[in-house]
Amino acid sequence: MGTVGEKRKRIRIEKAVSVPDGQGGHTNSFALRAVVYAHERPLSGGEALLAVQVTAVLRSVWEIWFREDVSVKDRIRYKARVLEVESYVDPTDERTELHLTCSEIQP
After folding, report:
1. What is the pTM of this model?
2. Domains of the chain
3. CA–CA distance from 39 to each of 3, 6, 54, 107 (Å)?
4. 39-95, pLDDT tens digit by residue?
């Protein structure tokens, strides 16, 4: 379990929403769910074939204080970085911390 001093990065957790596009349809966008402090732990790097080109995929775990409203449809923004939440887990089952496994794709 982490400590308060380890969670120094201020991140935005954004949820997926559907908004009107002005022409009678809807488009997907993101809205702010919460701003929290987190600790980043790098996992691995690799490559993926996306849109017929090889791109770098960086995986990391973001440790935050426990929340019930996080979803795998959410994303994290930290400065200019955008990360997709792949999974999340309460590592101790004590509802104190949440570990978010995320991937950041860099073209």
Report:
1. 0.80
2. 9-106 (2.40.10.270)
3. 9, 6, 29, 25
4. 999 886 665 555 556 667 788 999 999 999 999 999 999 999 999 999 999 999 999
